[in-house]
Amino acid sequence: MTAPAASNEPPAPVTEPIGPLLTTLRLARGLSQLRVAEQLCAAAGVATVSRHEVSRWERGERVPGTFWLGWLAAVLEAPVEELEQAVALTRAGEQRSAHPAEWTPELLWHPPTATELRRALDRDGAQDLRTMAHAWLAGPPEQPRETLTLVPSPTTTHLLDARTQRLAELRRMDDLVGGVDLAPLVHQEVHESISVLTTVGNGQPRRRALSLLGEYAQLAGWVFADAGDPGAARRAYRVALRAAAAAADRLLAGYVLAGLSHLTLEDGDPQEALLLARTAQTGLGADATALTRALLLHRVALAAARSGDRRGAHSALRAADRAARSGTSEPEPTWLYWLDQAELTAMTGRALMALGRPLRALDQLTAAGGRRGPRGAALYECWMARGYLQVGEYEQAGRLARRAFRNAVTAGSHRAAALLRRLHPMLLRHRDLPTVRAYERVTEGYHGLLPSAGPASSGEEANPVG
């Protein structure tokens, strides 16, 4: 293998430093840091690069020199000009030390203060969630020192137990109440969890409090997205990832990235969603429990399907099925309470729908059965109706869409309303059929009852239903 020569074509603009760019290129080719190091040594004929050196490049601790940039371009199949631009951006960032950025990758591994977390939750910032994800994947710059494990006081234990119970209550509410109505309450509860950090001290109690905060913020990200406020959702996911990293809770961090991938996909960026899902999957690796692995693979499958990567989507679906059926006895995290075999089957159906295989998708969705709560029912009925439209069963699609409309109005869910709005014009092309006309009569004049997108992080800003 020879190092690539510079191209005569002008290089495409590069907007990220060399570390995140190397991580992106490596993950896109399914390579580990060790494999990249091995290929670099084999290509260059110089056995001086180890996995640790690749890790330092990706974390931004070191910048590869001109010699290695050429071989990195060859191994990662990228224009050398792109890598040179990324190095220039990295150097420029180092020279701006007099004007530090609001957030750097190293900050992910520093214990966050309550003030930092409140600011991250309530204010838009320059933080790049992809960069945070790469920082998490690369790992801390060095192994953190063992913190003295303090025995929590009875008061602290009681407080954290109460916060755990409250979180379980909010999750049950989320099954039945849409994001439009639930978002202000969840926003308040995340702030309460941040306040708890100031009272629990250090050691094991603080790690537990940080993990709890991460779970609250993860739930908030999901709820804000359901309320049609992706900006607030991203801020919540940012707090969740900070808390999970500080608590050394890798499973929770991977779950947060899975939620962020789903949000990004809903926002219409399947390539970014796929990158985030693969980052979570790669970062957890063998540490993932069976259901966590199945969930992450389903996120990969759906994003790959939307990206046009049919082979990758089918491969991820097969791997997800194997993971779910592995039959391990390891305990699953409590935040996966909602993921059962029926839900996994429904997720398979949705991915198959995205792959343009409606018959197989309908088989899976039918086997999954109805979903719990009005939002789950509305989403399920929209997927089914879309499948029936694709196979020409327009009357059945009309019956399901009418039920979906009623459930979407009840749910107070922007997610369900958005799916129904996309289905609506496709269905009305067949208004010559009685069932479609019946759907049109039910919905005519009442689409204003469906939730629309808008800020939902405070009671004054939340969009009402109606």
Automatic annotation (TrEMBL):
One of its GO terms (molecular function) is DNA binding. InterPro entries: Cro/C1-type_HTH, Lambda_DNA-bd_dom_sf, TPR-like_helical_dom_sf. It comes from the Bacteria. Residues 22-83 form the HTH cro/C1-type domain. This is Helix-turn-helix transcriptional regulator. It comes from Natronosporangium hydrolyticum. The lineage of its organism: Bacteria, Bacillati, Actinomycetota, Actinomycetes, Micromonosporales.
